[in-house]
Amino acid sequence: MRPPLPGVHWTGHSLRIGLASTGRKKGKDGITIADQGGWARHSRLAA
Asked: What is the pLDDT along the chain (47 residues), one digit of tens a residue?
């Protein structure tokens, strides 16, 4: 893994939303993404 760019601050949310975005791009269903990211299964983010 490369070190972060100078001035870039990663948060837990950055990693969670990155997981969701990547999962969606790879065709994962919303329920799986919600379970992995810790969102409610019927959250808008999991839609």
From this structure: 666 678 877 777 778 888 889 999 999 998 999 998 888 988 776 55
